[in-house]
Amino acid sequence: MNDFFRMDVKPDYGDTPENWEDRLERLFTDEF
Question: pLDDT tens, position by position, for the chain (32 residues)?
Answer without folding.
Answer: 556 666 667 778 899 888 888 888 888 888 86
